[in-house]
Design brief:
By secondary structure, the protein is of the alpha+beta class. It contains three helices and five strands.
Amino acid sequence: MDYRRKNIILLVGFLIILPLLYYTAFKSTLDLKNRYQKLVKEKIEIDNVTSKMFAYNQEGKYIDSVLAKENIFVDNSFQQILLKKINSHQELSKIQILEFNNPIEVLDNSIKSHLYPITLKGDFNNLLQFLNFFERESLGEIKSYKFLKKKNYARRKEYLVLEVILKRVLSD
């Protein structure tokens, strides 16, 4: 046999053995490599989840501390929060709460909202400061307000009353 025939037989034999080798040894190795890469990706995702959970826990603690600082608790209703804000401003200025009625539910252009009627007594400057404070706190929209001059007939004195209607849009 000459070298040319031996080389052709060797080449044909190599081409026949190549698929056999692939199915016996290389295929399982490649499958294991792919499985390993998938597991590494899953491990990275799990590590990211734990770090995200840690970050969310830290953010939750921060939000809880801010809410505790503002005296806002989960069981507080908006009406209680509103009354606390008014009382905190009431300590700074000389205004009095005359009426703090229950909210009125209103449906305006298919948007559900509550109107909170509040009546306050005080002098003009303090009542204006209260309106300014209310806008800065952004607890809701001041729908309307009006100043009324009333008279106390028993003491023969006049005083100023502010009637405010606060609108709070409910999210559904």
